[in-house]
Amino acid sequence: MTLTDKTDLMKNEKWHWKSALFLIWLCSLGFYFHQYMFRLIPSLFVPHIHDGNMLNPIQLNMVLFVFWFAYVAFQSPASVIVDKLSFEFLLLIMSLLHISGILLLAISTHFYMVAMALFILGIASSFSLVFSLYIAKNIFTQKMYSLALGIIFAIGGTGAILSSFIFTLLFSQYGPSTALKLLTFIPVILVVVILFFMMIKKRRFLLKSNAVVSSLPSYPTVNNDQSKIIKKHANLMKSYAYVFFHALPMVSFYASWLFPFMEDKLGAHNLYTETSVATVFIGYIIGSPLAGWLTKMFYHYREFILFIISLLGMVISIFVIYATLSNMLTALLLLMLGMISSFTVMAISITADIAPKKTHSLSMSISSQCINLGGAVALLFIAGVFYWFDIASFYPNLKEFHVILFIIPVSYAVAMLIALSMAIYEHQFVTLLTDFQHYKTNYNENKTNTDKFITQKPFIEKKKKNHPN
């Protein structure tokens, strides 16, 4: 084989590798969408078991805790496993584990079966986001990676909105157990697609020459020199902290206490109250690709943008919680808070860029853990406030909510200060000031040239008339 043939073979191999990896990434998006639905469906399904006197109230809360414990606890091991196993094989195993958890939940008859089913679902869910992020980093360039992040998070938000609607529709027609079994349709299709892909891949590589490796090769997106530079980057830990505080309101308020708060603020049986949670998630879906696009367009000013976004979150959350507003304005502000929450995409893109190459997947899993860990810690804090202020009612009144929810604007304020520190470290304010001065200078020069042209235009036209060509 000549050198030219070997070069062409390697180029074709890299193109096939990219195409195969993109197909696996699409499958991982389908898996992420479905597992995001099952972050909310257990909270809809388990109460029906409680109505059948299978679980007491303590067990009811315990089994829901088991899911989130497994989800958070297995994200770090997931990052190590993603580095060791092939993408398609790991996605196949996790899809089968996800299906088995759903089926076990559908046939559960007592507490331990429900707990085991949710534990399995939590493990499968812990791999989904890390898996999608890791593959995307191997496919896209640094700037395009931010758009991929926006797509991933938008798909998750869509799954959150559709989960309640789809499960309620199937539940009303077939009952909870059959509804869960029908919901295995999507992961079963994914398993078939992955198996088909693995068969084609195996046959293709068996037919190729020994010059090409028989598994998906690794084409790193970060070179070794860059890896050495970013290994000691000071903003890495700050990016974790920013995600922790900026994502805190999503879990602790918008997905947990927003509905009862809106019942007190706007009144029960109010259209704006009933759609308040959906409004936030719609904003999250709109904001995720928008955040990805802004990351691509203003790549070198991401930390400054995060500073502005968290400042907006702090101000808007204060208005939503403490101000008396019209229903329409409240809904608009909730939509904006959903969009603001989606800017974790931009923070994660910073983590992805500055994380060391050898521990990249671990860094992404830590960032993913921080998204949910902040909300979990805030829920514990809220429970402590309940105890400290002796709030006996499960649904507090508006004044009690004002005490409980002060943590929301405070979390945005802390995130704002972290983003400010990151921006100062990157010298972004100096860069912005310099760019503004250059823009102002260019604007004045262009304005001066335009004024000169306008002043001289009559003389130019008169000269053309006196001296025609």
UniProtKB/TrEMBL annotation:
Membrane-crossing segments per the record: 20-38, 58-74, 86-107, 113-135, 147-170, 182-200, 240-259, 271-292, 304-325, 331-350, 370-389, 401-425
Subcellular location(s) per record: Cell membrane
Key words, A-Z: Cell membrane, Membrane, Transmembrane, Transmembrane helix, Transport
Keyword Cell membrane assigned: yes
InterPro entries reported for this sequence: MFS, MFS_dom, MFS_trans_sf, MFS_Transporters
A Pfam cross-reference name: MFS_1
Superkingdom in the source lineage: Bacteria
Membrane topology: Multi-pass membrane protein
Keyword check for Ribosomal protein: no
Entry-linked SUPFAM superfamilies: MFS general substrate transporter (SSF103473)
PROSITE patterns: MFS
Name recorded for this polypeptide: MFS transporter
Organism of provenance: Shewanella surugensis
Phylogenetic classification of the source organism: Bacteria, Pseudomonadati, Pseudomonadota, Gammaproteobacteria, Alteromonadales
